[in-house]
Amino acid sequence: MSRTMNMSTTAPVSTPICAVFPGTFDPITLGHEDMLRRACALFGQVVVAVAIAHHKKTMFSLEERLNMARTALADMPNVRVEPFEGLVTEFALAQGAQVMVRGLRSGTDFDYELQLASMNRHLRPQVDTAFLTPAPQLQCISSTLVREIASLGGDVSQLVSPSVLVGLQGKLA
Questions:
Q1: At the N or C end, where does the chain have fewer CB atoms within 10 A?
Q2: Are 27 and 68 in contact (CB under 8 A)?
Q3: Does the active-site annotation cover 105?
Q4: Do 160 and 30 contact (CB within 8 A), yes or no?
Q5: 32 in catalytic set
Q6: CB 133: neighbour CB atoms within 10 A?
Q7: Where are the alpha helices (DSSP H) in 73-161?
């Protein structure tokens, strides 16, 4: 007795996963860029969500932050840079994102980010959080430190892309 199995030769079609990487990006740093390159390798589309940030005093306007991010990330074809206001979970849902990407530089970051991830999951259980770490040589970089060093006349050329450096120099001139 012979049996024949009818197996489909067509693989299931999967939709590329969309991820949202939120932040103030005041300014975007090489650490951000490194994590975005990693996210691009994992997800079909990554939306860089630049917070309007009414609660923070930013050095750069929203338009300046959007433009710097778009210029710095221009070589990443699956990245889109968009402004957002309000709950990032609502923004992620509106973008069709299944994942929120968050960066971890240290254990201190982990405690804070775990709390955010837990609350985001409470608000929108269908949006998971993925934690990424920057390359070791970039772990010390934060936008706050970049602004402070630049405003005190220090060299931040190894911390930001050339286009962001021009923006910082212009702002501080």
A1: N
A2: yes
A3: yes
A4: yes
A5: yes
A6: 17
A7: 88-95, 107-123, 143-151
CB within 8 Å of 160: residues ≥ 6 apart: 27, 28, 29, 30, 72, 146, 168
Q: Which of 70, 105, 124, 171 is catalytic?
A: 105
Verify whether residue 124 is a known catalytic residue.
no
CA 2, CA 131: separation in Å to the nearest integer?
A: 51
Q: At what angle do helices 107-123 and 88-95 cross, to 10 degrees?
A: 60
**Mean pLDDT score of the chain, rounded to an integer?**
91
| Active-site residue identified among 32, 38, 102, 147 | 32
Which residue matches tokens 């650490």? 31
Give me the CATH topology for the region 18-172.
Rossmann fold (3.40.50)
**Does 143 qualify as catalytic in the annotation?**
yes
The answer to pTM > 0.85 is yes
Q: Which of 3, 55, 56, 57 is catalytic?
A: 56
Predicted local distance difference test score (pLDDT) of residue 5: 45
d(CA 128, CA 89): 10
Q: What is the mean pLDDT of residues 27-33?
A: 97
d(CA 172, CA 162): 15
**Residue 3 buriedness (CB in 10 A; 0-12 / 13-18 / 19+):** exposed
In whole angstroms, give the CA distance from residue 132 to residue 21.
Answer: 11
